[in-house]
From TrEMBL:
Organism: Paludisphaera borealis
Listed name of the protein: Antitoxin
A Pfam family assignment: PhdYeFM_antitox
Lineage, uppermost ranks: Bacteria, Pseudomonadati, Planctomycetota, Planctomycetia, Isosphaerales
Record InterPro entries: Antitoxin_Phd/YefM, YefM-like_sf
Protein family according to the UniProt entry: Belongs to the phD/YefM antitoxin family.
Length: 79
């Protein structure tokens, strides 16, 4: 549901109750818009994001991948 700011201020308890039971509530002020959501929904949306190490460990296994350096001599380059 969309609320105008003045109405949402006067009926804040109702706005909060609806956010908890029915879902996000939108509040507008001129050209600005905000959304009121429950803490549970916020945690669901923002949840813990894996750091880079966790991201790599969740990917494919490096087992069997040859990571040895090529020991052949480098090519000659004229500068």
């Amino acid at each position: 549901m969309t609320w105008k700011l003045a109405e949402a201020k006067n009926r804040l308890t109702e706005v909060v109750n609806l956010a908890l039971t029915e879902g996000p509530q939108t509040i507008t002020r001129r050209s600005d818009t905000v959304v009121v959501i429950s803490a549970a929904r916020y945690a669901e949306l923002t949840g813990r994001k894996p750091d880079f190490k966790d991201f790599l460990f969740q990917g494919e296994s490096f087992e069997g991948l040859d990571l040895t350096r090529d020991q052949s001599p480098m090519r000659d380059v004229e500068l």
